[in-house]
Specification:
The structure is a single chain. The chain has about 325 residues and is mainly α. The chain folds into two domains: about 35-140, Glutaredoxin, CATH 3.40.30.10; about 155-305, Up-down Bundle (Glutathione S-transferase Yfyf (Class Pi), Chain A, domain 2), CATH 1.20.1050.10. It has nine helices and four strands. Strands 2-1-3-4 form a four-stranded mixed sheet. Helix 1 runs parallel beside helix 3 (about 130-135). GO terms for molecular function: glutathione transferase activity.
Length: about 325
């Protein structure tokens, strides 16, 4: 399977299943406790967003979660972490089975995160940007006491603006570097990426979080890329002007979030490295997974408290991860 675009520029297909799960059920899928299953892979940055938001909002008892393994083939993500390679709730070995249950001729990529309707076994949505916003705004009846306001109405316009630039220039920017098929395409992508990282460094030099005084959806979206930067994107995707650990403001910001309950405790560095270095065989044909970098420094003091703000505002952090959802994290 080839990921590099031989024509030069990498262009992501952004057409997703736009069905939404809403409080009023206008798309035919009302919010109901226990009805849906969130399918993710810890390796995937887009899925990592959903894992974080579900945990921050305390939706564990309302929305079950299924974990795919860190690698996949051309057909689908698979449940190879589960006994017998079958998801214990959906009773399927491949996520594609849920896509085909709703769209028998589905021809696009089988992506995570995806939410599946358990009674029918059919996928509802894989629209990852809207999915996390809906968890914040449509599932409010089931948020835990003290849950953060990740998408507060007064700040939505600014969150949307910042998030859009983060998506095009950073979240997708690293892929544009890694999957570029020509020198010119790569260098253009590289310049765009580091221009955006410099902008973020300037923005975060004087404020603790991206928008307002608490964590928001924008911070979630940036964090999942920053967490993967040194283990994967710096080398594998050739994003090597500097390591994250050599960008003082962003490195301190990333450590601040990593040490905040709900963020770092969702990150599985071993699965992340396995995914990128094994699956992208056209970039890394040996499939050898790097041993480094040393990750213990994620737990060092960051000093960002001096900028004010509180991660959860007047709310509270989530409790420890649930049994079966803990990351085997050796830093």
């Amino acid at each position: 399977m080839s990921y590099v675009n031989p024509e030069g520029d990498f262009n992501r297909d952004t057409k997703y299943i736009e069905t939404r799960i809403t409080a009023d059920g206008r798309d035919g899928y009302p919010v109901e406790p226990g009805r849906y299953r969130l399918v993710v892979a810890r390796a995937c940055p887009w899925a990592n967003r959903a894992i974080i938001v579900r945990r921050l909002l305390g939706l564990e008892d309302v929305l079950s979660i299924g974990f795919c393994g860190p690698t996949h083939d051309e057909r689908s993500w698979t449940f190879d972490l589960d006994p017998g390679g079958v998801d214990p709730v959906l009773q399927i070995p491949r996520l594609q089975d849920a896509y085909f249950a709703r769209f028998p001729d589905y021809s696009k990529g089988i992506t995570v995160p995806a939410i599946v309707d358990v009674p029918t076994g059919a996928v509802v949505t894989n629209d990852f940007p809207q999915l996390t916003l809906d968890l914040s705004t449509e599932w409010t009846e089931y948020h835990r006491p003290g849950a953060p306001q990740l998408y507060p109405e007064p700040l939505r316009a600014e969150i949307d603006e910042v998030s859009q630039r983060i998506y095009t220039e950073v979240n997708n920017g690293v892929y544009r570097c890694g999957f570029a098929g020509s020198q010119d395409a790569y260098e253009s992508a590289y310049d765009r990426l580091f221009t955006a990282l410099d902008w973020l460094s300037e923005r975060l030099a004087g404020q603790r979080f991206l928008v307002g005084d608490t964590i928001t959806e924008a911070d979630v979206r940036l964090f999942t890329t920053l967490a993967r930067f040194d283990p994967v994107y710096h080398g594998h995707f050739k994003c090597n002007r500097q390591k994250l650990a050599e960008l003082p403001v962003l490195w301190a910001y990333a450590r601040d979030l990593f040490q905040t309950p709900g963020f770092g405790d969702t990150v599985d560095f071993a699965q992340i490295k396995t995914h990128y270095y094994v699956v992208h065989a056209d970039i890394n044909p040996t499939r050898v997974v790097p041993k480094g970098p040393d990750l213990a420094n994620w737990l060092t003091p960051h000093g960002r408290e001096a900028l004010g703000g509180k991660p959860f505002g007047d709310g509270t952090p989530p409790g420890p991860p649930r049994d079966g959802e803990r990351v085997d994290q050796t830093l």
